[in-house]
Amino acid sequence: MEEKKLYSCKEAAGLVEKFTEYMIRKYIREGKLIPVRMGRNIYVTKEELLRVVYEADNEHEHENSSVS
Considering the entire predicted model, what is its pTM? Predict the structure, then answer.
């Protein structure tokens, strides 16, 4: 079984330039980003984070195309 690296919200925010720690926590609360919980700590995988970033980019493009 392949082990995936887990990143804290603060570390994950450093992986993607336009995402902040607050945004990552918000996406977790909204259910858009699936976290891995270990006790009181919350972690995310890089794959899951990139999935959310890609979806956010697509939503942003749809908003811009419907305005024009």
Answer: 0.75
Q: Does residue 20 lie in a domain region?
A: yes
Domain count, the chain: 1
Range of the domain at 14: 6-67
CA 1 from chain center: how many Å? Answer: 23
Which of 15, 9, 25, 23 lies closest to 50 in space, CA to CA? 15
1 found inside a domain: no
Q: Residue 54: its pLDDT value, please?
A: 85
CB-count burial class (<10 Å; 0-12, 13-18, 19+) for 9: buried
Amino acid at 56: A
